[in-house]
Description:
Aminopeptidase, alpha/beta, seven-stranded mixed beta sheet, elongated, 518 residues, 16 helices, 9 strands, 2 domains
Amino acid sequence: MRSALYRWRWLLTTLFVWALFSVLTVWRYQLPPVQKDTAEGFSAARAMATLRRLLPTDAPHPRGSAEQAAVVQRLVQILKEAGLNPVIQNAHTCSPLGPCGQVQNVSVTLAGNRDTLVLFSAHTDSTPHGPGAGDDGQGVAILVELARSLKDQPHENGFVFLFTDGEEDGLLGAMAFLEGDPAAARVLVNVNLEARGNTGLSTLFRTAGPDAWLIEQYARFAPSPFTSSVHQVVFETMPHYTDLSVWQSFGIPGVDFAFIDGAASYHSPHDTVDQLDPRSVQSQGENARAMLLGLKDADLTHPPEGHAAWFDVLGLFVVRWPESWTLWIGLFPFACALFFARRAKRQEHVGIKTLTLGIAFTLGHLLGCLGIGALFAWGLPASMGSFAGLAVLPVVGVWSIGLGLLLRRQSAHALQLGGALTMTLLAVPIALFVPGIAHLWILPGLTMVLLWFFTIRRSSLAVPLSALGAFTAGAVIWLPLLEGTRIALAADSILPLSAGAGMLFVWTLSLWRSGDAS
């Protein structure tokens, strides 16, 4: 009876943690309310009004078209009405990606007390297939509002608000600015706005150059930060480019913001102003304004060097550290796991055989999760979209709990040590070669070994509390990432979701066994 009560107690606690952080993840993905006209902060209502003036029809406006020329004319008029002085650059240029062509950029420069310039960029052109309200009309409207609000404020650094042409044809406008605008030589940092859909939270998904100081500025000023170095790693594996790619090639550091939900509208006739979510514009505008506040008085001539690893915690704050620390942080839990394994062998007679079983069960669990994902990917219709990815999560949870219950005759301590050795060892090469994602493995393992130290004299609580602690730490960082993966990849998210859920639930295997809590 005591054994059954013990197992159910920890099972229910684990399910409660899972449910709690699932709810918090859903809450975290809620879009902010649209702010009206305000003297402080960012107003998406005003930006949407500007966007409607820019794009009064749903006609596409690719580079070189009459529709694009009309968009540029309307933009210039809006900027003049705001008391700004727009400059038009007409140029013929060639892209490093291959194409050449004529572009018409628009820029607004606001002088500061220093000669250095901060560049904010968005592109005015669309593809031939869609009106481009999300990609990238909203970015243009946001820059108009930022320039309007900044012109009467003091700022040490100067600002260039650049509206590029020909981004969709190979980043032509960005190249034209760097090759032909004298202001380009004074630009020391860039903030670029993009979109891959018509709704969703704006995320800082990419950096260029030494980024630790940029992440620091974002973390200080963003009202609800949404970012992770995992996004950066994923983007670098994909064949996508933004204007930031050009700035980066010329040694200009910077950040990219975008929202990615509603990807069916991307480069399609559905990318209209009416179907663009104003709350996403609010989210994007708040992110851009956070960077403006962080950069307007920053010392751009001597920014700190170095790259960072980072992630936000439910939009409340950003955890970050120098990327060079990641390997050493990753080695610590593995070294602790080795220490406790040796201690258990000496004091509790946990031998090589039982540890090997723990490692084997851990690997079997992860392979089983991949198998579940493969079955779902094969069996579920693609028409289920992102719900197909969502369906796999509870099945992985049931598999993890069921496997743990099947192992209830095994030594809980040995099972946990074998799992910890496996996962913390896995974190080491990840920290060495892909440090931007290593925290997904490091933090649960680090939490587990720290709880081992705190409960070393309470052996009855060491296993369950450390397992629950590792699972909780994993839920904080894994569940928001899995939700973002589901949104971004829809039906293609099944395998990544099943693998990620397996990485999360693997920390709970030692909770389900018979006997007492020791």
